[in-house]
Amino acid sequence: MTTPPRRRWEHKVLGFLSYPANIALGGVAALVLALPLVTLLPAAIALARAFSTWRETGNDAVFTNTFREFGATWRRSLVIGLVSLVILVILVADIVFLVTQLTVGGAPQPVILVSAAVIPIGAVVSLVLLSIPVAAAQHRDETARHWIRAAVGLVVAKPLASLGILVVLLTVLLACIALPTLVPFAGMSVPIYAAIVLWGTPAGDSSPR
What we know:
Distance between the termini: 43 Å
Order of helices and strands: HHHHHHHH
Radius of gyration: 19 Å
Structural class: mainly alpha
């Protein structure tokens, strides 16, 4: 007895569901790889390259490709991963201190001025750290130094896309604060996928290495 072919709407529904499923699974894979913390940026790079392969070639094995890409790139990205972790720790410590000072009430004028300065600094740092994985997906065979230069170029050359990515990042941050269970599935994966889409990935040279 032959099985009847699936209807078109079933194919469309399954295709639509593959997007959130792969984004969530990619986020879980990246979270596992990022557990040592120093591998946070290398894990983001691996996830971005897996997303890029998915978009360019249709290879939707995002979960396994993230681990494969991590194996291919961690040596190149470990140093910038360590530097980015130090920067993030300093930035988060400053933000926590300033928020504490402001919520206590009666914060002195210098604290208010510094807190105002931290906002644009944090935005720039966030954009650069998000653009490095995108640059690594666009320039697969290049060095980490080249990725950094290309990342800065993305932020400068596409300001509207950068603004959109900041909006996505802030939205995800607020959603994760309100619902912490979203963190493994969307905390890293949604901003990186948005960055891949909005900053764009050139065609070609997209197979995993």
